UniProtKB/TrEMBL annotation:
Annotated Pfam families: DUF3591
Organism of derivation: Arabidopsis thaliana x Arabidopsis arenosa
Classification lineage: Eukaryota, Viridiplantae, Streptophyta, Embryophyta, Tracheophyta
Gene Ontology, cellular component aspect: transcription factor TFIID complex
GO molecular function: histone acetyltransferase activity; RNA polymerase II general transcription initiation factor activity; TBP-class protein binding
Name assigned to this protein: Transcription initiation factor TFIID subunit
Length: 103
């Protein structure tokens, strides 16, 4: 569903046909997430689900034996993520190429 100035917009018409001005704020609401049935499986028993075993080989980073769910949350004034720096935590996993590697 799309809303503009409190009105529900019709899906079949373009934004220009609905008199939506350029650079206007349009609210998009998606209430259902549909999962594909074949993507409900977990990686095989021989693969670890957590680090460090989860990333032993480059091929373990593949999405061919599972599925990926990407989602973006963006607002000018954050309502849900109010703590400063909440998105700044970055975990990097690096596999040493030799025992002397100090990276």
């Amino acid at each position: 569903m799309m809303f503009y100035i409190g009105k529900d917009l019709e899906d079949e018409k373009s934004l220009a046909a609905l008199n939506v001005q350029p650079n206007s704020l349009v609210h998009l609401i998606r209430t259902k997430v549909h999962m594909w049935p074949w993507a409900q499986r977990l990686p095989g028993d021989n693969k670890s689900l957590r680090p460090p075993g989860a990333f032993k080989k480059k091929s373990y980073l593949s999405t061919k034996d599972g599925h990926v769910f990407l989602m973006e949350y963006y607002e000018e004034r954050l309502l849900m993520l109010s703590n400063a720096g909440i998105g700044a935590n970055l975990c990097t996993y690096y596999h040493k190429s030799s025992p002397e590697d100090q990276r």
